[in-house]
């Protein structure tokens, strides 16, 4: 009998608690300036990860940099992966909005100026989907001003502006180990069938121009691992450090890159006779990369204020 | 035509039988028939002959039917099959779909489990209304496993095979139990069944029984089921942490249905560093298919648990005379034990892969090959590889081949020493041989030759692994 009572009581309590939270949130907003031109927010959007440590080190760290830089903005989080959102809700009772939910809330709370800053690497399918959501809110005139920032390698590939690539390669230098002769870093990017996959080749070209001992390959696009192997053979290297060219060192980094699995990059390269050291840290841990996302947010704000 | 008549007669009989059971299925007298089975809902099923057109809507039923030798008779399976590999190729049916699809196949037996009856009663009703024999089975407790297998066998006329399989199964379990019986002190284990609310298992559940067989002491033996008949039990973070110092090994189930955390995520949970197993890095995942699903592979699951708890006893490689030439299947076993690598068990994702070795596809390593699990595990981990669809389990291992496997097992680094290997040009992977020799894992002969094509003895391979471990 007691048990049954508990079953009723617990949801009730949780319900109360939640409403409690709700009102605190409104209280927080009450501290904000009243609904006016000044009510501004930055929505930081990433794919998300279910690895709590990686979330802290790679996503939260970058979000916090943005938050600390733009203090007169309210900073919010959204993830684009429904699977991760659901997993976090079920497992950790951690509620994360998707971009649409987050923007709806900002609209309801009376925000007038909103910057949506993605933490994606390339403007691929994920970015297109995000853009579609932002475009919808823009078309509905949900905010006075709404702008979408660009991802890490955000300049359109067909333009001659390759500034993002130069800046990104400079940032990658910060995480390269001291390399000797016949040693190289192989970056593993996600890769995509989307046309933006050319960004990875652009990265390779930029790295080459910068004369860095590194090459870029991808899991699902080109350059493929076979192409990486061909480059390694040509460069006559013997020792490879594997690094994820991804915001977070999650499933791809732990399994596809560094796993004891027959098709992981580590296994495949070792079979060729390379000594391999995996580096299990996402780009989000690199402060120079965090600074790029801050700059892209600033660029977006500048666009907003034009 | 004859089949049609049989089906008709059958349906008629069944209708009568069902009408008979209608109100109180457990007490009514069933109609006369050759085969009578009372299922787990208390319904009596009467068959005139063993089922010949079977649709199984639960993966454990499918796996057991295959093990009873019913590949021909299975005409449909669930959409969640992963074992054996042949089950994945069978036509799949979904209880969330249209029952007409199943009726169109004219099955003479549809196997479900209580979960399906509970969540999709209308679907089951639709099948029963069309006079299909729907049998609902699921052994909640380990002690009901044999009875469950016998019912499957009775329905399909495989009683003899079933008894043989059960005998083998219990022999395998007994061997593990005998080995762990003398181990002292016993390891104390927390078994996480779901990551949500850190639930565990009930003391009479299948995993709890396997854990006991494997010589583990369940620290959560006082846990209570989340609901009647469930094998999942509430526990939670406070209780786990209250026993932090007692938990020698932390095992989390992985899989699609109920899954605990990964070792990486368990390690970093707030306050979990108080747990002894976390401090000593004794955190493992075990596939729910091997420890929770009622199939003969539970014997493999029990062995897996025993390997996690007592690697010094279960990952010892001693069964062969040391002078014997090492074969590839022995090398596979040796490396899986050396790395304490968990037995590979395929997920549905595995069958979607487009490159690499597909589980169970070596034509010379059948599912019942004694080294099957060692070979598959070694190959899936990338330590060994086959040649096309063959593994060549009995072929002797050469020094060239051994050097490549050893290189994959450890993260060797280049050393400053220079070596001259006179026959390096004869080696398939010169760079690997060079690194293996530089690190003194394998050595050269008096003439500074590596002799890549010479075979190796068990003793030599074990000595090399020893040196590898000490690096």
From TrEMBL, chain A:
GO terms for molecular function: metal ion binding; sirohydrochlorin cobaltochelatase activity. Coiled coil: none annotated. GO terms for biological process: anaerobic cobalamin biosynthetic process. The active site is at residue 190. Keywords: Cobalt, Metal-binding, Signal. Co(2+) binds at residues 190, 220, 252. The keyword Signal applies. PANTHER family: SIROHYDROCHLORIN FERROCHELATASE, CHLOROPLASTIC. This is Sirohydrochlorin cobaltochelatase.
Automatic annotation (TrEMBL), chain B:
InterPro entries: ABC_Transporter_SBP, ABC_transptr_periplasmic_BD, SLH_dom. It comes from Desulforamulus aeronauticus DSM 10349. Pfam families: Peripla_BP_2, SLH. One of its GO terms (biological process) is cellular response to iron ion. Belongs to the bacterial solute-binding protein 8 family. This is Iron complex transport system substrate-binding protein. Residues 53-313 form the Fe/B12 periplasmic-binding domain. Residues 1-19 form the signal peptide. The lineage of its organism: Bacteria, Bacillati, Bacillota, Clostridia, Eubacteriales.
